[in-house]
Design a protein that fits this description.
By secondary structure, this protein is α+β, with helices and mostly antiparallel strands. The protein is 34% helix and 31% strand. The protein is built from 15 helices and 30 strands. The strands form eight sheets. Strands 3-30-29-28 form a four-stranded antiparallel beta sheet, with no helix packed on it. A four-stranded antiparallel beta sheet has the order 4-5-6-7, with no helix packed on it. Strands 8-9-10-11 form a four-stranded antiparallel beta sheet, with no helix packed on it. A hairpin with a 3-residue loop joins strand 8 and strand 9 (308-313). Helix 11 packs across helix 12. Pathway: Protein modification; protein ubiquitination. Self-associates. Component of the SCF(FBXW11) complex. Residues 62-84 are annotated as: Disordered. This is F-box/WD repeat-containing protein 11. Residues 145-183 form the F-box domain.
C-alpha cells in the first residue's frame, strides 16, 4: 500500500482524468484547483479508507462527483473508530498546511457549506473570541501610542473611568496620555459654565499647556473632575432653590433716581442713569471708579467692548466714549426723539428711537461712523432692536415684532401676537423671546413666525428679558425677577405650572434692566440700586448641599429599615391569621 503525499501528483492525476475545475455545491459555483477538489472528495466521501483505497478512488472510473443540493450535506457514514479518525485528521492537516492561504480559505468555505445550522453556530462561538483584538494594548506595542490615546480621548467621564479598570496597559495609556486633562480642556472649550469655573477657581492655569514639569500629573485631573461636577451640581441647585448671595450698589443719583441700563464683565459694571450720567463700578469692591458726563438727557441704553462705550439718550443723540479715559470720541445726531436702544457688533450698529425709526450704521472706527439705511415701518416708538449676520429684529409699542434682512435692510416679516406694546426682546439663532406690557413673555420661531409658547406670571409690564441655553430671566415693573426653564418652555408637552423655576424679590421699584450668566444676575431698578445675585459664592452652600445629600441618604436608610421592619411585622401577622383560619375555620371559602 503506497501513500500519496505529493500534492503535485494529485494535480497531475486530476488533469489526466479530465475532471472539471468547478463543482456545484448547495446551489452555488465554487471554483477549485483539481488537487483541492480531490482532497475535498477524499475528506468527504472516503473517510476511514486505507491509503491504497484513496489512490484507487482517484482514478476516473471511481471518481465521486458531488451533485447539486439545496442544503447542507451530512456525512453518509459514522466514524468507524477513534484510531482511524486521528490518523485521517493528521493526514488532512498535513495537506492543509501545504496549501496557500487562498486555497485554505476556499477549502474551509466548502467544508462549512456542507455543515448543518447547529455546526455553524458552534463554529461561530469558536471564532468570536479569536476575532476580538485588544487594539489599545496592541497599538503601543507597535509604537502607535498616540493612536491609542486619540481613540480613548473621545470617551466621556463615565466611559473613561471604566476604561481605566480594563487592565494595567489601558490605565497606563490613559495616565501617560493625560486623558483626564484633555477631557476637562474639551469641556472648558465647549461649555461656558466650565470655562467660568476654570477662571473663578484658578485651575485654568493648569490647562492648555504642553507636557512640562509645571503641570500636575494625570491623577490631579482625575480627582479634579468630580470636584467640578460637584460645583456644577451646587450651582444648578442654587438656581433651582433660589439660594444666592446678594450684593447691593447704591447709585446715589443727585437729581432724579433710576438706573436705566447696564452691562458688566469680570472687572467692572457700567451703568446708565436717569440723572444723565454714566457710572463705572469696580465689580469686586463695588466702588464707583469713574463718572462720565455729557448727555443732556437720561442715559437709556448702552453697550461697550474693549475699546469704546456707546450710549443712547433721551437727548436724541448717540455718543461714543473711550473706555479707559472716558473721553468722548464721537457724537451722532440723527434721531428726532429719544434713542431707546442700540446694538453694535462686527462693524455694524443699529439704533432705534421714539421717532418710530431704526437707523443702521457702518462703524469703520469709533470716529468714522456713517449712516447706511433708515428702516421705517413701525407705527409707534421702536423700543428695542437686536441683530446677527442674517436678521435685524425690532419691537415696538405698536404690538409687533418686525424682521429685516441684515445684508439688504429689506423687510422680511412681522410677528403678531402680543396684545399690547412690546418693551424688550432678545434674538439668537432661530429663537426670539419678547416681553410686553400685556404682562406676558412670548417665544417665537423667527423663520416661520410662529409663537412657540406664552409665559404668564408677571403682574405688570415685562421691561427686560435675557436668555441662554438653559434659562430665561425676566424683570418687570412689579419689581420681580423671574427665572424660567427655557428647555421646558420649548417643549409643548411641559405644563405651564412647571416653567417658572424661581421668583426673586429684592428690588423696591420697577426693574429696568438685567443681564446674567451661569453664576449670577445683575439687575438695575427705579429704586436707584444695582443688585448682584451670586449663585456661586454662597457661604456654606457646598456644605449645605453635602449635608442635604447625607441627610437624604440617612433618611432613605432609615426609611428602608422601617419598611423592612413593617414588612416583617406584616408577614408575621399574615402567618398568625392563616394559622388561626386553618384551625378554627377549615371550611372557610377563602
Amino acid at each position: 500500500m503506497r501513500e500519496v503525499n505529493d500534492v503535485s501528483e494529485f494535480a497531475g492525476r486530476r488533469r489526466r482524468a479530465g475532471f472539471p475545475f468547478s463543482q456545484r455545491v448547495s446551489g452555488g459555483i465554487i471554483n477549485m484547483e483539481p488537487e483541492m477538489e480531490d482532497k475535498t472528495v477524499e475528506l468527504m466521501t472516503t473517510s476511514g479508507m486505507e491509503s491504497q483505497t484513496l489512490v484507487d478512488d482517484l482514478s476516473p472510473k471511481k471518481t465521486t462527483v458531488l451533485k447539486p443540493t439545496n442544503g447542507p450535506v451530512m456525512g453518509s457514514r459514522k466514524r468507524p473508530s477513534e484510531g482511524n479518525y486521528e490518523k485521517e485528521k493528521e493526514h488532512c492537516i498535513t495537506l492543509f498546511d501545504q496549501w496557500s492561504e487562498a486555497d485554505q480559505v476556499e477549502f474551509v468555505e466548502r467544508l462549512i457549506s456542507r455543515m448543518c445550522h447547529y455546526q455553524h453556530g458552534h463554529i461561530n462561538s469558536y471564532l468570536k473570541p479569536m476575532l476580538q483584538r485588544d487594539f489599545i494594548t496592541a497599538l503601543p506595542a507597535q509604537g502607535l501610542d498616540h493612536i491609542a490615546e486619540n481613540i480613548l480621548s473621545f470617551l466621556d467621564a463615565r466611559s473613561l473611568c471604566a476604561a481605566e479598570l480594563v487592565c494595567k496597559e489601558w490605565q497606563r495609556v490613559i495616565s501617560e496620555g493625560m486623558l483626564w486633562k484633555k477631557l476637562i480642556e474639551r469641556m472648558v472649550r465647549t461649555d461656558p459654565l466650565w470655562k467660568g469655573l476654570s477662571e473663578r477657581h484658578q485651575w485654568e492655569k493648569y490647562l492648555f499647556k504642553n507636557r512640562t514639569s509645571e503641570i500636575p500629573p494625570n491623577s490631579y485631573y482625575h480627582s479634579l473632575y468630580p470636584k467640578i461636577i460637584q460645583d456644577i451640581e451646587t450651582i444648578e441647585a442654587n438656581w433651582r432653590c433660589g439660594r444666592h448671595n446678594l450684593q447691593r450698589i447704591q447709585c446715589r443719583s443727585e437729581n432724579s433716581k433710576g438706573v436705566y441700563c447696564l452691562q458688566y464683565d469680570d472687572e467692572k459694571i457700567i451703568s446708565g442713569l436717569r440723572d444723565n450720567s454714566i457710572k463705572i463700578w469696580d465689580k469686586q469692591t463695588l466702588e464707583c471708579l469713574k463718572v462720565l458726563t455729557g448727555h443732556t438727557g437720561s442715559v437709556l441704553c448702552l453697550q461697550y467692548d474693549e475699546r469704546v462705550i456707546v450710549t443712547g439718550s433721551s437727548d436724541s443723540t448717540v455718543r461714543v466714549w473711550e473706555v479707559t479715559t472716558g473721553e468722548v470720541l464721537n457724537t451722532l445726531i440723527h434721531h428726532n426723539e429719544a434713542v431707546l436702544h442700540l446694538r453694535f457688533a462686527n462693524g455694524l450698529m443699529v439704533t432705534c428711537s421714539k421717532d418710530r425709526s431704526i437707523a443702521v450704521w457702518d462703524m469703520a472706527s469709533p470716529t468714522d461712523i456713517s449712516l447706511r439705511r433708515v428702516l421705517v415701518g413701525h407705527r409707534a416708538a421702536v423700543n428695542v432692536v437686536d441683530f446677527d449676520d442674517k436678521y435685524i429684529v425690532s419691537a415696538s409699542g405698536d404690538r409687533t415684532i418686525k424682521v429685516w434682512s441684515t445684508s439688504t435692510c429689506e423687510f422680511v416679516r412681522t410677528l403678531n401676537g402680543h396684545k399690547r406694546g412690546i418693551a424688550c426682546l432678545q434674538y439668537r439663532d432661530r429663537l426670539v423671546v419678547s416681553g410686553s406690557s400685556d404682562n406676558t413673555i412670548r417665544l417665537w420661531d423667527i423663520e416661520c413666525g410662529a409663537c412657540l409658547r406664552v409665559l404668564e406670571g408677571h403682574e405688570e409690564l415685562v421691561r427686560c428679558i435675557r436668555f441662554d441655553n438653559k434659562r430665561i430671566v425676566s424683570g418687570a415693573y412689579d419689581g420681580k425677577i423671574k427665572v424660567w426653564d427655557l428647555q421646558a418652555a420649548l417643549d409643548p408637552r411641559a405644563p405651564a405650572s412647571t416653567l417658572c423655576l424661581r421668583t426673586l424679590v429684592e428690588h423696591s421699584g420697577r426693574v429696568f434692566r438685567l443681564q446674567f450668566d451661569e453664576f449670577q444676575i445683575i439687575s438695575s431698578s427705579h429704586d436707584d440700586t444695582i443688585l448682584i445675585w451670586d449663585f456661586l459664592n454662597i457661604a456654606g452652600g457646598a456644605m449645605q448641599l453635602t449635608l442635604y445629600r447625607r441627610k437624604s441618604r440617612a433618611d432613605w436608610l432609615m426609611g428602608a429599615s422601617v419598611v423592612k421592619r413593617s414588612a416583617s411585622s406584616f408577614f408575621f401577622f399574615l402567618l398568625v391569621i392563616s394559622l388561626s383560619i386553618s384551625h378554627s375555620a377549615p371550611s372557610c371559602p377563602f
